[in-house]
Amino acid sequence: MRFGVNFFPTIGPADRPAAQYYDECLRLTEMADELGYHHVKTVEHYFFPYGGYSPDPVTFLAAAAARTSRLRLVTGAAIPAFTHPVKLAAKLAMLDNISHGRLDAGFGRAFLPDEFEAFQIPMDESRDRFADGVEAIRRLWSEEDTVWEGRHHRFGPVTLLPRPFQRPHPPILVAAAFTPASCEQAGRDGHGLLLVPSISSTEHVQEMLRLYRAARAEAGHDPRGEVQMSYIASVSEDGARAREAGRRNAEHYSASLAEAVSSWGRTRSDAYAGYEKLADRVKKSDYGRQLAENKVLAGDPDEVAAQLAVIRDWYGDVTVSLQVNSGTATFQEAERGLRLFAEHVLPRFATAGEPVGR
Q1: What is residue 103's three-state secondary structure?
Q2: Is the pTM of this model over 0.90?
Q3: Which segments constitute the Luciferase-like domain (predicted)?
Q4: CA quadruple 235, 249, 51, 105: dihedral positive or negative?
Q5: I need a surface site. Which of 58, 139, 159, 183 has the fewest CB within 10 A?
Q6: Phi, psi (rounded to 5 degrees) for 234
Q7: Other Cβ atoms within 10 Å of 69 Cβ, number
């Protein structure tokens, strides 16, 4: 298994100034690079405390690239529907060159109605815009004199500059929430997968992974693929203190998510079947159950290692992204947790043939 850090802010100006949050995240990023973590990841969201401090993952990751030398830089995830594919392909190619080939390009459909409304993009178009955007970006990276004739964009012939540092292009990962068909398509296309296990049952995540890996194998790709899973994490020498800190953080995360998805109460889209129930599902989330079901990580290093051993049995040697500085955790708590994890947990899960954590 490999482990990285995921910065998914769930705060706003009333909680912490944006400049302070970025300063703290960049300090933690430098530390993660020194301690042997695999990656740093951040999200794209707008307007709400749920992710709103991260409207452009490329900007943050460019700053992270300047302060690190080994970490992979993961967009988790950029949203093609909100940016012209030429623009997004060029921004990401710049980041790949600035970092000398450390970019992992994660893409997502988005799911918040207020974001689609602000960008004046119909939610019913999200699936087509996502698929077209990812493929257009892949071709812009891989080809010269690219001609694109999609449903929503037409351009070419054009040759993108700069060319990506990684050839033929940076690794592509696809965010999937609930839909098994999305996992199958990612597998057929040879892409990696971004998952958040806390929003689904263990059995459903296992089924999505089974379909993903089977589709990769059938298409002639390595059946394992790159699977990244994000977990809220709280680690302390005192397990009880870690669990209490984890409870505060998980409940704060759920509250910020509930606010962001509240507009699903008045929104319907055929592209998002069942999402009208999302707000009720979020309100019913229970930290004790999440902890018992290993959907959040909390405890002393031995307890968290035991949780991860179960997760590895369930899902295999996936890559885990630790959300340690999302909302209620102080910088000192996040820093101490990352150090404890690196010293006492990382060595137990080293992937054969790779340096610890990488």
Answers
A1: strand
A2: yes
A3: 1-315
A4: positive
A5: 159
A6: -140, 120
A7: 10
Strands 72-78 and 39-42, by their bridges, are: parallel
Token output for 126: 């999200």
pLDDT score for 354: 57
Over residues 111-159, the pLDDT tens digits come to: 999 999 999 999 999 999 999 999 999 999 999 999 999 999 999 999 9
Q: Where does residue 246 rank: exposed (0-12), middle (13-18), buried (19+ CB within 10 A)? A: buried
Domains of the chain, start order = 2-349 (3.20.20.30)
- φ/ψ of 317, rounded to 5, equals -80, 70
Mean pLDDT computed over every residue of the chain: 93
> How far apart are alpha carbons 44 and 8 in whole angstroms?
9
Q: Is the pLDDT of residue 33 over 80?
A: yes
Which amino acid is present at 242?
A
Amino acid at 96: D
Phi, psi of 203 (to 5 degrees): -65, -40
Neighbours of 13 (CB within 10 A): 9
Look up tokens 């060029």; give the residue: 90
Determine the residue type at 80. Answer: P
